[in-house]
Specification:
Residues 16-99, 107-198, 223-295, 304-388 form the Ig-like domain. The chain has a five-stranded mixed sheet, with no helix packed on it. A four-stranded antiparallel sheet has the order 1-3-6-5, with no helix packed on it. The protein has one helix and 33 strands. By secondary structure, the protein is mainly β. A hairpin with a 4-residue loop joins strand 5 (62-63) and strand 6. It has four domains: 10-103, Sandwich (Immunoglobulin-like); 108-198, Immunoglobulin-like (Sandwich); 202-301, Immunoglobulins (Immunoglobulin-like, Sandwich); 304-390, Immunoglobulins (Immunoglobulin-like, Sandwich).
């Protein structure tokens, strides 16, 4: 009796490995969002998609056995973390991605220094209109009343995301309403600014005996502190008084000491004229108090805002992947880079267009991650989040 034995081999079994393409996606509200989970393994793994917190996908989400996840018309509710899970007899692997959905709608407008600007005839007046929205809005100024055709074009600077309006020496004829218009593919918005021009004594622009340290026009960024120093030149027993024209109040939290006006946290509405009046004793007792004035114009620019997603920190599992996305709200362009504390970024880290990703997370990757945003004029803002690894 002869026996024979044969073994049929189908190859070694392998646990699933997977990747997601694209790594993350950002779409406008109403646009299609599509991700593909690419899986390898033996036996062929099954693929399932879930939403954050293991929630099921909405009924209108499309998936198939090839790993596609598709939203034909993404809504704001669809912005979330999504997980692709691949399973076979050798194990289960999971990978996270994010769908970002930009809201659809007309631009949102912010005007600086505000919707009412009070100035002195002959002074410099600066107004800025910043609009946010996707796509980036086109912004321009126009006059609210009929004027000579050469008034506004000489003073206006339209652009993408923001527009400026500058009067080097404002006149009574330039008082009135000015309209900022912003538009993109989803609509347009307007904001009306009323410019008031008051008649003040010519000494408000500064005469011998009173001056303000620094340039007549100073530019600050929201959140900065300001120190305006009023100087009395040769005046006897000077007493200082700071005010804003048109009855506008000085900024909250301000203080005045020895002629110095200190503003701890300047805001956009604090833009405008600041007048220092110095009262001093006369050189002869039969004369009234002497009054000297000087003024400075403060321009406050709106600081862009950095947003990190996911917000509130995150927890990553060692040997898996994670990524952080830093976006900027406000007119650009901006340079975005990431840094980590403590220590440098992992050699495995990739930093592309504000997205920081690490494919194989190590315990040493835990720490504080800081998104650094730099504007063309050198202004830097930072936003941070914490990553925990276990």
């Amino acid at each position: 009796l002869h026996q024979a034995q044969a073994t049929i081999s189908f190859g070694d079994s392998e646990p699933p490995t997977l990747s997601i393409q694209p790594r993350y996606i950002q779409v406008n509200e109403g646009e299609r969002a599509e991700l593909r989970c690419i899986v390898e393994g033996r036996p062929t793994p099954t693929i399932t998609w879930t939403k954050k917190s293991n929630l099921p996908l909405p009924d209108y989400a499309y998936t198939d056995e090839t790993g596609v996840l598709r939203f034909e018309s993404a809504t704001l509710d669809d912005q979330s973390d999504y997980f692709c899970r691949a399973s076979n007899s050798e194990g289960t692997t999971e990978l996270r991605t994010i769908i970002y959905v930009r809201p659809r709608g007309p631009p949102t407008i912010t005007v600086t220094p505000g919707t009412r600007v009070v100035s002195i005839v002959g002074s410099r007046v600066f107004m800025e209109c910043v609009a946010t929205g996707e796509p980036t809005p086109t912004v321009s100024w126009k006059s609210g009343q009929r004027r000579r055709s050469d008034v506004l074009p000489e003073a206006s600077d339209p652009g993408a995301g923001s527009a400026q309006l500058l009067f080097e020496r404002v006149s009574f004829s330039q008082a009135g309403t000015y309209i900022c218009e912003a538009s993109n593919d989803y609509g347009s918005s307007t904001e009306i600014v009323v410019l008031e021009v008051n008649d003040e004594d010519s000494t408000a622009q500064g005469i011998r005996g009173a001056s303000i340290e620094g340039p007549e026009r100073q530019t600050l960024t929201v959140g900065q502190s300001a120190e305006l120093r009023c100087i009395a030149d040769g005046l006897v027993n000077p007493r200082y008084n700071w005010r804003r024209p048109g009855g506008l109040a000085l900024p909250p939290g301000h203080s005045v000491r020895n002629g110095i006006l200190y503003i701890p946290n300047i805001e956009a509405e604090d833009s405008g004229e600041y007048i220092c009046t110095i009262y001093s004793d006369p050189y002869r007792p039969d004369l009234p108090l002497q009054e000297n004035k000087a003024s400075v114009y403060i321009i406050v620019t709106v600081t862009p805002r950095a947003i990190i997603y996911p917000s509130g920190g995150m927890t990553a599992v060692a040997d898996t992947s994670f990524f952080l996305n830093c976006t900027v709200q406000g007119p650009g362009p901006y340079e975005i880079e990431w840094r980590k504390e403590p220590g440098p970024l992992s050699p495995m880290a990739r930093d592309e267009n504000g997205v920081l990703s690490i494919d194989r997370v190590a315990v040493t990757d835990a720490g504080t991650y800081i998104c650094v945003v730099t504007s063309p004029n050198g202004v830097t803002i930072e936003e941070s989040t914490t990553v925990r690894v276990y």
